[in-house]
Amino acid sequence: MFERPRGTNDWGPGDMAKRRFVESRFTQLAGSFGFREIATPIFESLELFTAKSGPAVVNELYAFKDKGGRDLALRPEFTASILRFYVSDLRSLPKPVKVYCTGPAFRYEEPQKGRYREFFQLDAEIIGGATLPSDAEVIALAIGTMRAIGLKQVRARIGNLGMLRAFLPFEAKDQAVLLHALDKKNVPMLRDELTRLGKPELAEPLERLASLSGDARILDEAQEILGGKGKEAFDDLRRLGEALVAYGIPASDFEYDMGVVRGLDYYTGMVFEIDSPNLGAEKQVGGGGAYSLAEVFGGERVAQTGFALGLDRLVMAAEAEGAVPEPRPLDAYVVPIGAAMRPKAVEILTTLREAGLSADVDLVGRGPSKNLDYANTVGARYAVLVGEKELKGDAVAVRDLRSGKQEQVSLETLVAALRRA
Ligand code: HAM
């Protein structure tokens, strides 16, 4: 017996049906928004992730040396890989470049419910659009995906990191420490750092600012705390809210929250997070915002914005809200009545499969009644009984496994009859 590595999961057929359902809501909606799918490697050079975040981030990664002595890491997210790909190849495409990606990502976390070392993300990015419409478009896709899954409890919290950065007159390195303290809501650390930087008086207004959340009215209050700084960012936030309403997103689906800081170092402007209140400690199902990475990777300055939803947490939220539909049952289970009927049963099975119906047949050699029990247990919709007597009249018996009703159906009309049902 082997155990799976810590922080990883196996997903059985029931789980996978739910996961594929949730994923398909995202890929379909992203496609309808004009995003196109891309894929990038699961491992990258380690430097891709340390370039912006510094060497400390290695502790949070699955980093390793390959046999050629190269420093590599399993991707902890998609954004850095997508921007690397953009700078090397995709920037020749017409702008804006709208792409999405799905798959596993890896972080060296302390595992708990909803927090894993291997987890799955649904990611979308817009590169080279104008900032405000692109920000609105990604938030609309993120919220729209949750609605398309059938989730009722959707609430995005929208902030702006540019504003917070404008408030902190320090180098990027020191800003990062302060923003990290804010992100973790670690007030003692925030105060200590501001004292170290010689500006302890900023602690009080910063805490006040970060605690502001609500509708557009809080923006006036926030603007007052900032003493007129960051006017453009405030105007953008107001216009962003109006743009979301134009997308048909109800005002109750989002609020402004000046305390949204995000855990990654590359954000520069609008930032947002989406929670699912049902999930307990790991309730953040998604997050994103406007950032600058292309420049770090040798590309030109260009607007970049995007988000990732956590598939594992989305599925948990959908389960908690009863939003996942029952998986589609097997259309037909074909039962040969006696071994001699098997070749004919397989012929009929193949016809059904070729017609696009899902159909299965006994592979064990069970008798008819055991086969019917099995068909019931696997939740098949119909049993198609292939017996000598019916076949003489080019027909089979079709049993509705829900009602138990059985009728004779000609081979010619079998596909149509099952399809109709
Ligand atoms: P993130 O907030 O680090 O953002 O991750 C996005 C989502 O991935 C989280 O909200 C959460 O649902 C899920 N997630 C993250 N870590 C774990 C974990 N250990 N276990 C389970 N789920 C997890 C990003 O990754 C950015 N790249 C998003 C982005 C795209 N920003 C701009 N473009």
Tell me about this structure:
The chain is 40% helix and 22% strand. With 421 residues, it is of the alpha+beta class. The strands form 3 sheets. A 9-stranded mixed beta sheet has the order 1-5-6-12-11-10-7-9-8, with helices on both faces. A 5-stranded mixed beta sheet has the order 14-13-15-16-17, sandwiched between helices. A hairpin with a 5-residue loop joins β3 and β4. α1 packs antiparallel against α4, α4 crosses α10 and α6 runs antiparallel to α7. It is elongated and about 95 Å long.
Quick gist of this model?
The protein has 15 helices and 17 strands.
> Major beta sheet, specifics?
9 strands, mixed
Low-pLDDT segments, ≥5 res: none
- The amount of beta strand, in percent, is 15-25%
Give the distance, in angstroms, between the N- and C-terminal Cα atoms: 45 Å
Structural class: alpha+beta
Read across the widest sheet, the strand sequence of neighbours is 1-5-6-12-11-10-7-9-8
User: Helical content, roughly?
Assistant: 25-40%
Mean pLDDT, all residues:
94
Shape: elongated
List the total number of helices: 15
The distinct ligands, each listed once, are: histidyl-adenosine monophosphate
